[in-house]
Every structure is written in structure tokens, then in C-alpha cells.
Design goal:
125 residues; alpha+beta; 3-stranded mixed beta sheet; 3 helices; elongated; disordered C terminus
């Protein structure tokens, strides 16, 4: 395969086992294989810094997420830092909220507790 791609063994300095998934998810590692979603990988390879857009009183502010990983020429260290980053997980976790509701079923009152992903309107667009 390397020959077909014009890559010679003397050119290879390091191999990183990585699965690029079409399922949106935060980065993880399973059995020495890094897992990254295709949007994050594409942003990295195309040097596009992902952003969070925050709306406050109708004014939208954009904040780059880990811009140091997307600036300049792509490096192995930047890729490894992205693959090992928990930043996306932290952003998603911040939006998880707990809800409790009470329902009447006949004459019986029951209480339900569950987690939801917070509506992004007026916070993160």
C-alpha cells in the first residue's frame, strides 16, 4: 500500500492508529486506536478552527476552540494533542442538564428524573 501511495519506509517516522468515524462524538481511544469524528478530522486537515458562537443580548460572539491546534502547518504533535483532547467532551458535558417532572397517573403521582441536552438557543448557537 505504501508503495502505491509513493511512501517509502524511510519516510515513515511514526504510525498513529486512528479511526475516522462518521458519527459525531468526542475523541476517545480504544485498544491503542484513537477515534475521531470526520468533522474534527476534516477541520484539522483543512486548518479550520472550530468555533463556539455565543449569543448575549442579541450580539453573537465567536470563540475559537483550541486554535493552537489548527494554526500553521499540521504537525504530528498537534494531531496527537487533538486526539487526546477532552475539550469537546467538556463542552458537551456542560450542556447536559437534569430534569425532574411529576406526572399524575390516575390517582397516583410519579416523579421522573432524566438527563437532557440543554437547548442551545440564546447560549451556544
Amino acid at each position: 500500500m505504501a508503495k502505491k501511495l509513493g511512501i517509502y519506509s524511510s519516510d515513515i517516522k511514526r504510525v498513529i492508529n486512528m479511526l475516522v468515524s462518521n458519527v459525531s462524538q468526542y475523541n476517545s481511544k480504544q485498544d491503542e486506536v484513537y477515534i475521531i469524528d470526520e468533522i474534527d478530522f476534516s477541520n484539522f486537515m483543512n486548518r479550520r478552527t472550530p468555533q463556539i458562537h455565543i449569543s448575549k443580548k442579541g450580539i453573537i460572539h465567536s470563540i475559537g476552540i483550541l486554535p493552537q491546534l489548527y494554526s500553521g502547518e499540521a504537525t504530528v504533535d498537534q494531531l496527537l494533542n487533538l486526539l487526546q483532547s477532552n475539550h469537546k467532551r467538556e463542552l458537551i458535558t456542560q450542556r447536559i442538564k437534569y430534569r425532574n417532572i411529576q406526572c399524575n397517573i390516575g390517582e397516583k403521582m410519579i416523579s421522573l428524573s432524566f438527563k437532557i441536552l440543554e437547548d442551545i438557543n440564546d447560549t451556544i448557537l
